[in-house]
UniProtKB/TrEMBL annotation:
<feature type="binding site">
    <location>
        <position position="161"/>
    </location>
    <ligand>
        <name>NAD(+)</name>
    </ligand>
</feature>
<dbReference type="InterPro" id="IPR036291">
    <property type="entry name" value="NAD(P)-bd_dom_sf"/>
</dbReference>
<dbReference type="GO" id="GO:0006065">
    <property type="term" value="P:UDP-glucuronate biosynthetic process"/>
</dbReference>
<dbReference type="GO" id="GO:0003979">
    <property type="term" value="F:UDP-glucose 6-dehydrogenase activity"/>
</dbReference>
<dbReference type="InterPro" id="IPR036220">
    <property type="entry name" value="UDP-Glc/GDP-Man_DH_C_sf"/>
</dbReference>
<dbReference type="Pfam" id="PF03720">
    <property type="entry name" value="UDPG_MGDP_dh_C"/>
</dbReference>
<feature type="domain" description="UDP-glucose/GDP-mannose dehydrogenase C-terminal">
    <location>
        <begin position="328"/>
        <end position="452"/>
    </location>
</feature>
<feature type="binding site">
    <location>
        <begin position="8"/>
        <end position="13"/>
    </location>
    <ligand>
        <name>NAD(+)</name>
    </ligand>
</feature>
<dbReference type="InterPro" id="IPR028356">
    <property type="entry name" value="UDPglc_DH_euk"/>
</dbReference>
<dbReference type="Pfam" id="PF03721">
    <property type="entry name" value="UDPG_MGDP_dh_N"/>
</dbReference>
<feature type="binding site">
    <location>
        <position position="38"/>
    </location>
    <ligand>
        <name>NAD(+)</name>
    </ligand>
</feature>
<dbReference type="InterPro" id="IPR014027">
    <property type="entry name" value="UDP-Glc/GDP-Man_DH_C"/>
</dbReference>
<feature type="active site" description="Nucleophile">
    <location>
        <position position="272"/>
    </location>
</feature>
<keyword id="KW-0560">Oxidoreductase</keyword>
<keyword id="KW-0520">NAD</keyword>
<dbReference type="InterPro" id="IPR014026">
    <property type="entry name" value="UDP-Glc/GDP-Man_DH_dimer"/>
</dbReference>
<dbReference type="InterPro" id="IPR017476">
    <property type="entry name" value="UDP-Glc/GDP-Man"/>
</dbReference>
């Protein structure tokens, strides 16, 4: 029986390995992690991450051919194929701080593999890493290899949170990069054999190592660029009276452009886009390509602009101050169907409003008060380190209250901000919300989920990203 071990039981390691175990009953899969609470949660009824469909897949194979364990060394020792899916956060100190990927966790995993291995292994990069990381990993593994043969493969993951199980069951493609040598081809085939259990042959792409590593960064840069492009247009729509949904639809019906990923928003979030583009920018700079670096940097600048533009709209609409006004925040996760808050635009919007002394009442169906308080107190990039290395007791923000109901959050509020597109927000009784709010009552829709005209009929003043402006906002000076 082939044995797989995955180091890192996070948003990628957990679901990916659960699906491999589900689809390959002839393979034994162990997912290991240094975080004891995370592994305990994977072994319990309350999994550590919320992902539609994940519970069923895990329950189907757990303790049969899928195991979660903190005994990292034992499972690495026994494995034929070792996936590494650990954090690769943005460096906060030293060379490349604020841009380069921090490979501390990767390096320590590689050193541990080298220490405990007694048999040949295929080591698979599942984490998103800078181009040429495989070369560094190879050096660590082979430096004192005791005659063991290691083959390094790059097999980046393309799943999106909220649809991870769907994406893993039916991927657009699986990408495997390896050395172009007989041993390299053999290793690529071994990994291909795993995915072939359920992925059609023509969707398994094989490339050289560097193409696979770079394709992951490129794919995320292209996706984020589409969002920044439509968000840049949303500002122009507001200035001209065009409607960004109509523009995006008209643009997206060109088959060369395509309709997906053109939803204007308060900005993209998530653990990957910003981190991976910063990483790409750094690699370009290191390779003497400042113009290329500058080009990609602009995607992040527009994203930051979009978030601050949203805050400015709120403050300027509400008589230029939100001091001591109750603002209801509906949605804190970076997108619907996940409890993940890493790099969520809600952090920047809330901090902007708190900077203007607002009182926030936050409701998200999947995010706990503790998480929200941590997010609003942590330093940038701290969130992307293993749990036990994050600050333990952040200072509680007194002006932030978290509630478990949208009606409670909006009661007596001056304004409602929608920051995540949870389906339940579309079905809210806005008449009831209006009746219980201070007047004038404002709605700032950062996800374009509400029917602005219906809300205006009720009496709300409504701002929707990239839509023709409410008369109230039109008369105000433009904000930047
Ligand atoms: N989250 C996503 O949607 C997504 C998608 C594609 C790729 N990625 C990439 O995958 C990688 C992992 O992302 P994630 O979201 O799963 O992160 P995560 O923080 O959820 O999980 C990483 C896990 O690795 C563990 N870990 C760190 N060092 C370890 C070590 N030396 N030994 C054992 N365990 C260790 C941590 O405790 C943590 O549980 C990152 O490089 C990320 O960029 C993420
Ligand atoms: O039209 C759109 C689409 C997305 N978003 C926002 O963009 C962010 C990212 O969304 P999405 O890409 O759906 O989720 P992620 O889980 O971050 O997945 C991205 O990042 C992963 C990590 O690298 C990759 O594996 C995936 O392919 C890639 O889609 C979220 O804040 C979304 O709300 C928009 O604002 N408008």
């Amino acid at each position: 029986m082939v044995k797989i071990c995955c180091i890192g039981a996070g948003y990628v390691g957990g679901p990916t390995m659960a699906v491999i175990a589900y689809k390959c009953p002839d393979i034994e899969v162990a997912v290991v992690d240094i975080s004891v609470p995370r592994i305990s949660a994977w072994n319990s009824d309350q999994l550590p991450i919320y992902e539609p469909g994940l519970d069923d897949v895990v329950k189907h194979c757990r303790c049969k051919n899928l195991f979660f364990s903190t005994d990292v060394e034992k499972h690495v020792f026994e494995a034929d194929i070792v996936f590494v899916s650990v954090n690769t956060p943005t460096k906060t100190r030293g060379l490349g701080a604020g841009k380069a990927a921090d490979l501390t966790y990767w390096e320590s995993a590689a050193r541990m593999i080298a220490d405990v291995s007694k048999s040949d292994k295929i080591v698979v990069e599942k984490s998103t890493v800078p181009v040429k990381t495989a070369e560094a990993i190879e050096k660590i593994l082979t430096h004192n290899s005791k005659g063991i043969n290691y083959q390094i493969l790059s097999n980046p993951e393309f799943l999106a949170e909220g649809t991870a199980i769907q994406d893993l069951f039916n991927p657009d493609r699986v990408l495997i990069g390896g050395r172009e040598t007989p041993e390299g081809y053999k290793a690529v085939k071994a990994l291909k054999d795993v995915y072939s259990h359920w992925v059609p042959e023509d969707r398994i792409l094989t490339t050289n190592l560097w193409s696979a590593e770079l394709s992951k960064l490129a794919a995320n840069a292209f996706l984020a660029q589409r969002i920044s492009s439509v968000n840049a247009m949303s500002a122009l729509c507001e200035a001209t009276g065009a409607d960004v949904s109509q523009v995006a639809y008209a643009v997206g019906t060109d088959s060369r452009i395509g309709p997906k990923f053109l939803n204007a928003s308060v900005g993209f979030g998530g653990s990957c886009f910003q981190k991976d583009i910063l990483n790409l920018v750094y690699i370009c700079e290191c390779n003497g390509l400042p113009e290329v670096a500058e080009y990609w940097k602009q995607v992040i600048k527009i994203n930051d602009y979009q978030k601050s533009r949203f805050v400015n709209r709120i403050v300027s609409s509400m008589f230029n101050t939100v001091a001591n006004k109750k603002v209801a925040i509906l949605g804190f996760a970076f997108k619907k169907d996940t409890g993940d808050t890493r790099e969520t635009p809600a952090i920047d919007v809330c901090q902007g409003l708190l900077g203007d002394k607002a009182q926030l009442s936050i409701y998200d169906p999947q995010v706990t008060e503790d998480q929200i308080q941590r997010d609003l107190s942590m330093n940038k990039f701290d969130w992307d380190h293993p749990l036990h290395l994050q600050p333990m007791s952040p200072t509680t923000k007194k002006k932030v209250h978290c509630v478990w109901d949208a009606y409670e959050a909006t009661k007596d509020a001056h304004a409602v901000c929608i920051l995540t597109e949870w389906d339940e927000f579309k079905k809210l009784d806005f008449q009831r919300i209006y009746d219980n709010m201070q007047k004038p009552a404002f709605v700032f829709d950062g996800r374009n989920v509400v029917d602005a005209n219906k809300l205006r009929e009720i009496g709300f003043i409504v701002y929707s990203i990239g839509k023709p402006l409410d008369a109230w906002l039109k008369d105000l000076p433009a904000v930047a």
